[in-house]
Automatic annotation (TrEMBL):
Gene3D superfamilies: YVTN repeat-like/Quinoprotein amine dehydrogenase
NCBIfam families, per the entry: beta_rpt_yvtn
SUPFAM superfamilies, A to Z: C-terminal (heme d1) domain of cytochrome cd1-nitrite reductase
InterPro entries to which the protein is assigned, alphabetical: Haem_d1_sf (IPR011048), Host-pathogen_enzymatic-act (IPR051200), Lactonase_7-beta_prop (IPR019405), WD40/YVTN_repeat-like_dom_sf (IPR015943), YVTN_b-propeller_repeat (IPR011964)
Domain of life of the source: Bacteria
Name assigned to this protein: YncE family protein
Length: 292
């Protein structure tokens, strides 16, 4: 199995910190763009959005641990995701209500998709046929047909949906609603909200564990990670982390999760089996985090 690392965007240092999960130490810091934010790990590439100033996406080469290029997105690019087959990427452009489509072979934008107001979070379904985009100002999730490159559905959720994550089987999607202190559960086949789960104050990032049992939700104002038991649809625990936890990612084996604490210049390392923080790593103003 190829060696895996954790990639953390630093809005304060304009870098990506590369963490070795074997030692939980920073092994490299790669300069990127101004106010680096979103992170998507895709094989030998890592894509990092730079929403303040340049409105670009930096392309980091994994083997050389260096930025090998960048490309212009729309205005206010925050979220970024790459399709399961690794061929296509989506970037949400918050300030112009579009999603930029880019080809990972050329790292060039090849299309644009109009969305509802305030596109922010983005995730591809495991089969790659659909992508979900949260529209913060429209309080909805946009359903994109990836073959047609068009919005084909609109799912109303609660106030200010930020991030979205699918279960590994693609049956459900979970959406954090920051201004409603909740997570919406979407049945993907019917395209409807089937449940709403109350979580901590101002939920932001969300990740589903590789085995599909749990979801971790960062709660910015509560300084905790809420643990969702997906079988029961309830919060089973709250794990104290650093200040203003923003994003979270599981390692591929599901044994650890990494939480970017923007307010305390740190990354919390959670031991998933113990349900507790096992270590803390210093990173300046961390925002997005990805593992792969």
């Amino acid at each position: 199995m190829p060696e895996s690392f954790v990639y953390v965007a630093s809005a304060g240092a304009n870098t990506v910190s590369i963490i070795d999960p074997a030692s939980d130490t920073v092994v490299a810091e790669v300069p990127t763009g101004e106010s680096s934010y979103g992170v998507a790990v895709a094989g030998q590439r890592v894509y990092v959005t730079n929403p303040i100033g340049p409105n670009t996406v930096s392309v980091l080469d994994v083997p050389s641990r260096s930025v090998v290029g960048s490309f212009a997105a729309g205005h206010g690019p925050f979220g970024v995701a790459v399709s399961p087959d690794g061929a296509t990427g989506y970037v949400t452009n918050f300030s112009e209500n579009t999603v930029s489509v880019f080809d990972t072979a050329t790292d060039r934008v090849v299309g644009s998709i109009a969305t509802a107001a305030g596109p922010f979070g983005v995730a591809f379904a495991p089969d790659g046929a659909r992508a979900y985009v949260t529209a913060i100002n429209a309080h909805s999730v946009q359903v994109i047909d990836t073959a047609r490159r068009a919005v084909v559905g609109n799912i109303e959720v609660q106030r200010a949906p930020y991030w979205v994550a699918f279960t590994p089987d693609g049956a459900r999607a979970y959406v954090t609603n920051q201004n409603s202190d909740s997570v919406s559960v979407i049945d993907v086949v019917s395209g409807t909200v089937t449940a709403t789960i109350a979580v901590g104050d101002r939920p932001d990032g969300i990740a589903v564990s590789p085995d599909g049992r749990l979801a971790y939700v960062t709660c910015r104002s509560a300084n905790v990670v809420s643990v969702l038991d997906l079988a029961s649809g309830t919060v089973s625990a709250a794990i104290p982390v650093g200040s203003v936890p923003q994003s979270v990612a599981f390692t591929a084996d599901g044994t650890k999760a990494y939480v970017a604490n923007q307010g305390s210049d740190s990354v919390s390392v959670i031991d998933v089996s113990a349900g507790a923080v096992a270590g803390t790593i210093t990173v300046v103003e961390p925002t997005g985090v990805g593992a792969g």
